[in-house]
Design goal:
Radius of gyration: 20 Å
Number of helices: 9
Shape: globular
Strand content: under 5%
Number of domains: 1
Oligomer: single chain
Mean pLDDT: 90
Structural class: mainly alpha
Order of helices and strands: HHHHHHHHH
Length: about 260
């Protein structure tokens, strides 16, 4: 049966397969990255995921694409008239999954567990984007400003702040802001700055496309790309299960080796 998307003059509440497919692409790319990371952890390969540009730049691109899609999706949801109760239901799911990630990472990496990773960052940024999604083209300026402010603030703190203040910004108490002079020891770190800027840029595109009633995005994806649509549509569930499955498989493989 052919899939259908209904577009009205006010923008439908249907899903946009193009956006879901783009989000799905980010998830598949992330899966490949995590699989290589897991292979490295189990000793099947030897790579430096913390400083080798091959891996650090991939992480940046994957995260940027995912947050861009999140901002775009939130802006379009607001344009579709998403209610606050519906927003909070989804937000609670994100926060709950973030807490599960913290608990699971503490179990595996007690010295570097995840306390403000991608889901933690998204939970905070979603609220900000929800409140500002109607600002339209101003979001481009805000996004660029946030990215610039991060590096300006870091320079100012490094140049003139006391050691106590620097240590405070570098501590878990405030390092979620992103104004740090050294990276924290954690397996995933997605602070407010500069990543809010990327999500705001996504929201700017989503707001612009909403004004065009989703033109282009409303088109159905060809069958070969539909798996990406499904993954993107269930991105949170996929995110939560992909690592346990891969790690479990590698544990079995390592035990048989």
């Amino acid at each position: 049966m052919r899939r259908k998307i209904f577009i009205s003059t006010t923008l439908s509440t249907s899903r946009f397969e193009s956006l879901d497919a783009l989000r799905g692409l980010a998830m598949v790319w992330m899966t490949g990255f995590h699989f290589c990371f897991d292979l490295n952890q189990f000793g099947f390969i030897k790579q430096d995921f913390y400083s080798d540009p091959l891996w650090t730049w991939q992480r940046t691109f994957i995260l940027s694409l995912f947050l861009f899609c999140a901002g775009m999706g939130q802006a379009m949801a607001v344009a579709q008239g998403q209610s606050w109760p519906r927003f909070w239901r989804r937000w609670v799911q994100v926060v709950g999954c973030a807490l599960l990630v913290t608990a699971g990472s503490w179990r595996m990496y007690p010295q570097s567990f995840i306390y403000f990773g991608v889901l933690h960052g998204i939970a905070l940024m979603l609220i900000i984007v929800r409140l500002t999604a109607h600002w339209g083209a101003w979001l481009w300026l805000l996004g660029g400003g946030v990215i610039a402010i991060k590096y300006i603030a870091i320079y100012a703190i490094s140049a003139g702040a006391t050691a106590e203040l620097i240590n405070l910004f570098n501590s878990p108490t405030l390092n979620w802001l992103g104004v740090i002079t050294r990276k924290p020891i954690t397996e995933d770190y997605v602070p407010l700055l500069p990543w809010l800027g990327i999500m705001w840029w996504g929201a700017a595109v989503g707001s612009w496309w909403s004004g065009r009633m989703g033109q282009g995005l409303s088109q159905l994806m060809p069958p070969v790309l539909y798996p990406l649509v499904v993954i993107g549509r269930w991105s949170l569930s996929y995110y939560m299960i992909h690592q346990p499955i891969m790690i479990g498989a590698l544990i079995l493989l390592a035990g048989q080796a």
